[in-house]
Every structure is written in C-alpha cells, then in structure tokens.
Design goal:
Shape: globular
CATH class: Alpha Beta
Number of domains: 1
Largest sheet: 7 strands, antiparallel
Structural class: alpha+beta
Distance between the termini: 51 Å
Radius of gyration: 16 Å
Helix content: 25-40%
Number of strands: 7
Length: about 170
C-alpha cells in the first residue's frame, strides 16, 4: 500500500504535461469519453467572446473571481505546453495547456495525485455581443468514480460558469 501512494506521489512530479493520450485529446478540444466522471455545461454571457476569453486566460487572476480556487502559480502567459498549478479545497492541481485558440477554444489537462482531468472550453459569439460558453470535462483514475460523481463535476462546472458570467458582465 505504501508503495502505491509513493508511486502516485512520484507521478505527480515526473509526468510533465501529463499523459500523452490526455494531451492529445485536449489538444483537439476533446475529453476522455471513457472516463467514469464527465460533465458538459454551458451558459450565455452578456459580453463579447474577447472579454470572456481575456478573463478565462488570465489564469493568475482566477482566485479573485472563481470561488473554488484559492491560489494559482503560472510563470508565463498561457499557450500550448505552458504548465500551471492551482489550488482548491481538494488540493493542488498540476495542469498543462493543450489547446489555445484565442477567443475560440482553450483546453488543459490536470492531475491531482493519481487522478487525471481534461477540461475543454469553447466560446461561440452570439448576436448582440453575447457569448455562448461551453465547457466539457472528464476525470479518470481509480477510484475517482467512488469519490466524486459526474453530478459533483457538473455542479462545480456550473459554479465556474456562473462565476465567469458574473465577472464578465461586471466589466
């Protein structure tokens, strides 16, 4: 048992941008459809895609408006292969940007201990300066399905979208 946790802890630090399959999927704006935990959420925001994009990619600023994030560390501007860390009540997530299409699509992979996630965003401009924001996310790694459900993930993603809407519409 002790070696299992040590191996998971070691993976946390040696895997760089994470599993290549996750990076490949995220690079296409896709998630792991075979993962035990998945969610799809969307919201319409009364702000342009450019405004929403600028908030979303200002990763260092996330703790100021995203209620579940307590800290962020990123050493350069977001772009493909840029790594960053962010903390929530569950721990520190080590992430890597896999897709970066300004004002259109953004995706990253993340890992926390032995758990892996893919989070993909798509922004679609709508009439009257509004934006449809869609987010898809998957989580895998035994025993994630026993600890966290797709409903839990959907709730968290809906909160993230609500916080993003509040921030974007306040400008």
């Amino acid at each position: 048992m002790r070696s299992f946790f040590f191996f998971g802890f070691l993976l946390l630090f040696v895997s760089g941008c994470g599993r290549s399959t996750d990076q490949s999927l995220a690079g296409q704006g896709a998630i792991n459809d075979g993962a035990p935990v998945k969610a799809l959420a969307q919201i319409v925001i009364d702000a342009s895609a450019a405004q929403v994009w600028n908030i979303l990619v200002d990763i260092q600023d996330w703790p100021k408006w995203q209620t579940d994030i307590t800290a962020v560390s990123i050493k350069q501007k977001p772009a493909v292969s840029v790594q960053f860390e962010w903390s929530t009540g569950q721990g520190t997530i080590h992430s890597c940007v896999a897709l970066f299409e300004p004002q259109r699509r953004l995706a990253w992979t993340g890992r926390l201990f032995i758990f892996h996630a893919i989070h993909a965003w798509m922004l679609t401009p709508l009439p009257n300066g509004r934006t449809l924001v869609q987010t898809r996310e998957s989580m895998s790694g035994w025993p994630i399905g026993l600890l966290y459900s797709s409903g839990d993930l959907l709730s968290a993603d809906n909160q993230w979208l609500a916080d993003l809407k509040k921030k974007a519409e306040a400008k």
